[in-house]
Amino acid sequence: MSELTHSASIEHLGASPSVILPTHSDKEARPESCNYRHLAASVHSQAELGKQERIAIIRGDLVVRYPAITHMLSYTRWLLDAPPRTRTTGMLVTGPVGAGKTTFARLIQRTYARRSGADAVPIISISLTGARHARTVYGRILEALNGPVKTSHRTSDREATVVRLLKAVHCRALIVDEVQDVLAGSVQEQRSALDAIKFLMNELQLPILAFGVTAAAEAFRSDMHLDARFKRFELATWEVGSSFANFLRSIVRLLPLRKPSRLDTETAMNFLAKHSGGSLDGIMTLIRHAAVHAVLSGEELIDSAILQQALTVPDTEDIHSAVD
Ligand SMILES: Nc1ncnc2c1ncn2[C@@H]1O[C@H](COP(=O)(O)OP(=O)(O)O)[C@@H](O)[C@H]1O
Ligand SMILES: [Mg+2]
Question: Is it true that domain 101-234 has CATH number 3.20.20.140?
Fold first, then answer.
């Protein structure tokens, strides 16, 4: 994983647009009176909120644009901005469960939805959970488009409807999550599901953004045409090191705690890596628990004692009865 720069941006999904972390000169320009210089500018006002409101923010969706994310976003942009070509390309993002694949897929959708006009549906997103046949793949797309999904529809009818609707909404890309699920089918079923994806790529010159656990790469590798057309990216597990330290420095700037925390120490990093197995999901769960304990206890920062408490899920009763 490449290095994170100090200007990495962070954001809350579903909230205001992404926030660029301040550069050093921004920091100098900020008035001395600000109590929350350890936080990103967008989080200053949140730090003033009551305990329950801050806990809700901590438990909400947080997205850090660490270098792998920025790199993938820029490739996505390159794909989407390219004029339609006869040989359309796609991307395949693999990684273990909890590595951040679906979060990234949502980030792409949100980024491009925001740029589009009111009625435009530029990116369609489906999940292949349990899908083993082209018919189901088309059915999922129709559902995503709120289109007609009659069980009586034959695969060829669905295919024609999907092509017509995707053209009508000027779809610019198709997100396909959980692609490894096609592997659960027979060789014939796998081919059928993957053929549907290839067909849409060819027929509509539609870039496909595919996501799945590491085994998904196998499904694509088994098909020469798909293999050649998809650029691979991997979201790996996290290990103690400078990239992890940078990620942790970004995340503490986003937690509305009133005092500065250090998670980039060897001890904290070792703790988080050990108890999460390096999964981003596990890391974020521990950090969220720790931050909630920090608010409830009034400590207002995460230190090694609070980090130990992160192994325990905060008590919901304590959260509901928290007073400022
Ligand atoms: N870019 C990110 N920044 C911060 N937290 C993230 C990020 N991506 C994922 N997470 C955390 O990891 C969890 C699991 O991510 P998810 O996208 O569902 O993983 P996957 O789809 O690879 O199984 C999310 O709920 C979130 O807490
Ligand atoms: Mg997922």
Answer: no
